[in-house]
Amino acid sequence: MTTGRLRLRRTCAREAASGAFEKIMSRFFPSSAECGHHVIFGNIPITTLAGEHLQMAVVDLPADGVVEWHSHGNEQMGVLVSGQALFEIGDEKKTLKPGDIYFMPSMVPHRVTPIGGPARAIDVFYPIREEYR
Predict the structure, then answer these.
(1) Strands across the sheet containing 75-82
(2) What Rg, from alpha-carbon coordinates, does the chain have?
(3) Residues 65-86: what's their mean pLDDT?
(4) How many other C-beta atoms lie within 10 A of the C-beta of residue 130?
(5) Which residue among 26, 71, 83, 115 is buried most deeply as judged by most CB within 10 Å?
(6) pTM to 2 decimals?
(7) What is the band of 9 on the pLDDT scale with cuts at 50, 70, 90?
(8) Is 115 helix (H, G, I), strand (E, B) or coil?
(9) Is the pLDDT reported for residue 22 higher than 70?
(10) For residue 72, which phi and psi values (nearest 5 degrees)?
(11) How far is CA 128 from CA 16, 48, 51, in A?
(12) pLDDT at residue 10 greater than cutoff 60
């Protein structure tokens, strides 16, 4: 069995002389171009990927970005992967650091503010947020 990477290398080597390249897409390893790209709350870029039932979002909070108070019908959980941020969920507040996880039940108001610089989080939603496809 030929892996996608080996197949791509062979295709590139074979096609290089003619200048033609074949784009090989993988259903298991989507490229950035195959993901959703959105800006939320004015200046917060997110990259999203939806499966059949779950959706993931990479959220890049700039130092001056704030995910303002909101709620939605989706369950949301995730992990802070870089930076620090104040998470306010319902009536609880906690400053999270890389590796800390969080859970936001359906319809519970929440807000996120980065502390001391940018932060990055990985969110998972169920069900899928259609507006983030």
Answers:
(1) 36-40, 44-50, 55-61, 119-126, 75-82, 101-104
(2) 19
(3) 98
(4) 8
(5) 83
(6) 0.79
(7) very low
(8) coil
(9) no
(10) -155, 165
(11) 41, 10, 8
(12) no
